[in-house]
Amino acid sequence: MSLLQVQDVSVRFGGIVALDGLSFDIEDGQICGLIGPIGAGKTTMFNVVSRIYQPTSGQVMFRGQNLIDAPAHGIARLGIARTFQNLALFPTMSLLENVMVGAHSQGKVGFARAVLRIGASKENNATREFAGELLHQLGLGPLMFRPAMGLPFGTLKRLEIARALAARPTFLLMDEPASGLTHGEVDELGDTIVAIRDQFDLTVLLVEHHMSMVMGISDKVVAMEFGRKIAEGTPAQVQADERVIAAYLGTTE
Amino acid sequence: MKSLVTIKEGSIGHWVLRLLAAAIVVAIMLWIPTKGSNGLVTSATEALTLMSAAMALNLILGYTGQISIGHSAFYGTGAYVTGILVSKYEWSPWLTFPVAFLFAFVVGVLVSFPASRIKGVYLALVTLALALVFPNLLRWPKLESLTGGGPGIPNGDSALDTTGFNIGRRDGQMRNFEIFGWDPFGDLRGQGAIPFYYWIAAGIAVIVYLVIRGVVKSRAGRSLIAVRDNETAAAVMGVNLVATKAFAFGISAGLCALPGSVTAIRLGAVSPDIATLTILGSLTFLIIMVIGGAGSLWGPIIGAALYVFVTDRTGGWADDEAIPGVLRPFFGWSKIPPGSGIFAVILIVLMFVAPRGLVGVWKQYSPRVVRVVPRPAGVAHDAKPALVADTTTNSTPEGESE
Ligand SMILES: Nc1ncnc2c1ncn2[C@@H]1O[C@H](COP(=O)(O)OP(=O)(O)O)[C@@H](O)[C@H]1O
Ligand SMILES: [Mg+2]
């Protein structure tokens, strides 16, 4: 059975149909590229999986469980983590603390134990080490005590990846991780994503406009336009698809 | 930014520094009730009570980002729980503290449910309503048998009586607490017990501080700051927004009730007219917290000390003759003590030059003298970072002291 099954999902905002009966599957261990022009509904799809948006109809099955039945804060515990297209960091916190919050779903110390100091500092130290390790791996080690506020966009995009990994996910959704990067950095990020997938045993859903990178690293690509799926298959199949070509010729990439 | 001294977190130098700071705090706290005048001890008690309330408010406003102008109601809840239990049911005042905490905790949690659906100015208005309704609730005739209505519970025979503490008595005789000629508690009766009330207020302030410190330095505390900084991201990280706000509100309200209980014990009476039980109390807690530094552990402590210092110093300034020479032209116009006016000016100025309060100023400039370099987290591999082909960051390692 597929890891994730998006089944006939529709999302409406008043008159706007952001997703219109979208369906596709992702297999365990795959990197799945999700492409489409701006406004196609890619971010909306992420927000449905994160339970930030309530779909008008349809369901999203993850390991056989309907995500729509879970609350937003329950998603991380199921092993699903994400990054945000326009950054959703904690600006006053240091990079280290940002990543430590990323590990929230892995922790146990609540208010009572924090007040009574039962196992709080032990958990704190372990989380701190783990978060520091992730920051080093993503090349952010030297910046870990800086507040997130005011750092360059590309750096913060990488911080989002570190924070998502802190949840020890099995499924990672990345929303335009390469935006704001130079060409050289984009290729490098592609390698990073593959390395992350291998090291952490992840399944990845990747939204990206840099075609060479998506096509280079994806096992499978889903193309969307106007909230609908217009093509699905290997990178080569999708690139050759007429509707995909038409969709992209119609927009300035 | 260069600093004169850098100290590694957790090193011997860092511990010496921390012990020194702790020793200074303990010395001041001991000095006040032993060597200070009665006036100073009373002022310090006032400051300790206000700082406890401001610390409690800081948890929900400074750390969690949920505005509350209703904390005077939680403070008043503590005062009345203690007042009623001691005067009507003859409880020992000690036992009323946990009850006051729990009662206000429940009220706080109940307030949090509508509060977790509304934000910003709407939440301010709802909590404002709470502050305005509370004194009227106390005057409500149907509750009069409990609250004493308009006059409240007066100071008198059946009223709040610190002899209920019983710790000073044995077989009808006063027990002697003198240590080497130093009597830390006073004689535990009436006006003589001023140092005793001071110690109760100090004990509560320490408890409130330790509870809040425990929370904010843990996973739970990080989730509060996460909610303040970005609710959506916090939820995606697995933070249950409703439950987190409920706990934060509950703990904040419960802690705010404790200094309320202290006030009831100290005054030996409670009434709806006590200023800190009205909206004025909420505003005082708020101003103290903001001036000291919202979202910092020491902000409310510094803020309360400064607030009481200023209001005390200017307490007699309604009379022009009492104003020191140079300042007379500035404050001669005021026919009431200008303390709150002075504080308002401080607040306005600070909002422009230091929006993060006095502690914010300290955090900005103290690293020029002493910088505490945080303990490194995780192992820095000397080779290239595993997941980055080529490190493009050319920044130098730099630590921020907390
Ligand atoms: N919260 C929202 N309210 C109203 N319309 C929205 C909202 N979120 C997305 N949309 C609309 O849904 C459509 C899809 O948006 P989005 O998912 O962000 O596209 P993409 O990520 O593919 O660029 C757009 O027309 C957008 O304007
Ligand atoms: Mg998008």
Task: Please describe what this structure looks like.
The complex is a heterodimer of chains A (253) and B (402). Chain A is α/β, with parallel strands linked by helices and 253 residues long. Chain A has a domain at 4-79 and 169-249: P-loop containing nucleotide triphosphate hydrolases (Rossmann fold), CATH 3.40.50. Chain A is 36% helix and 23% strand. Chain A contains nine helices and ten strands. In chain A, strands 6-7-8-3-9-10 form a six-stranded mixed sheet, sandwiched between helices. The longest helix of chain A is centred in the middle third of the chain and has 18 residues, at 120-137. Chain A is globular. The mean pLDDT of chain A is 92. Chain B has 402 residues and is mainly alpha-helical. Chain B has a domain at 40-280. Chain B contains 15 helices and four strands. Chain B has a two-stranded parallel ribbon with strand order 1-4. In chain B, strands 2-3 form a two-stranded antiparallel ribbon. In chain B, helix 8 packs across helix 10 (241-267) and helix 11 crosses helix 12. Residues 166-175 and 390-402 of chain B have low confidence and may be disordered. Chains A and B meet through helix 2, helix 3, helix 4 and helix 6 of A and helix 7, helix 8, helix 9 and helix 10 of B. The site of magnesium ion (MG) has 3 residues of chain A, from helix 1.
List the helices and strands and how they pair.
The complex is a heterodimer of chains A (253) and B (402).
Chain A (H helix, E strand, L loop, with lengths): L3 E10 L2 E11 L4 E5 L6 H8 L7 E6 L2 E2 L13 E3 L12 H8 L8 H6 L3 H18 L15 H13 L5 E5 L7 H18 L2 E5 L3 H7 L2 E6 L2 E6 L1 H6 L1 H8 L4
Parallel strand pairs in A: 3-8, 3-9, 6-7, 7-8
Antiparallel strand pairs in A: 1-2, 1-4, 4-5, 9-10
Helix pairs in contact in A: 2-4, 2-5, 6-7
Chain B lengths: L4 E4 L3 H24 L2 H26 L7 H19 L3 H23 L4 H20 L4 H4 L21 E2 L2 E2 L19 H23 L2 H11 L1 H6 L4 H27 L11 H14 L6 H15 L14 H4 L7 H15 L3 H9 L4 E4 L29
Parallel strand pairs in B: 1-4
Antiparallel strand pairs in B: 2-3
Helix pairs in contact in B: 2-7, 2-10, 2-11, 2-12, 3-4, 3-5, 3-10, 3-11, 4-10, 7-10, 8-10, 11-12, 11-15, 12-14
The site of adenosine-5'-diphosphate (ADP) has 11 residues of chain A, from β2 and α1.
